[in-house]
Amino acid sequence: MNKDQIKKLQKNVGVNSDGFIGRDTFTALFKKLGASDVRANELALAANVHMRTYKILDSANRFVHFIAQLAHESGNFRYMEEIASGAAYEGRKDLGNVIAGDGKRYKGRGPIQLTGRANYRKYGQALGFDFENHPEIVAYPSVGMLVACKYWSDNRLNELADQDDVLAITKKINGGTNGLADRKAHFAKLKSWV
């Protein structure tokens, strides 16, 4: 994102418009989107580091697509764990849920709603956490933000954001098109802020 886009975002979220995105800007953004004060601070701490590492801040499109998708997945950053029980994922071999109880144990968590034993194992191993034996860790906002950034990068979603392809991004995150209209609405709102 360039300095002018950052200043516009800062103005829209109500912080000092200095053109340098950091923890205060992220905290204000997450609060404005619906996160509690505590959750906004935790998400901001991680976003300030990991969104840079995974090159999500390299362009406004990447930033807006990323935040829009996460806003949809997490109910505007209010939920770091899926509200449903996870029973619908029971026996889903495509998610690696092969042991009785896996559906509930590996239900969606974090702002991107990581789902399924296979994903918990994959991202835990990649990031140095034991998510498979301790899936609840993904629901910690700071850890969940790291997982979201890694998932975004691994699935080459920066490239799809560069192409402005909300449909393809949605399919990579959701496996289908659930909530597409809401995702587009989040995108349009956030795009107007930068």
TrEMBL record:
It comes from the Bacteria. The keyword Hydrolase applies. Keywords: Hydrolase. Residues 75-154 form the Glycoside hydrolase family 19 catalytic domain. InterPro entries: Cell_Wall_Dynamics_Protein, Glyco_hydro_19_cat, Lysozyme-like_dom_sf. The keyword Acetylation does not apply. Gene3D superfamilies: 1.10.530.10. One of its GO terms (biological process) is chitin catabolic process. One of its GO terms (molecular function) is chitinase activity. This is Glycoside hydrolase.
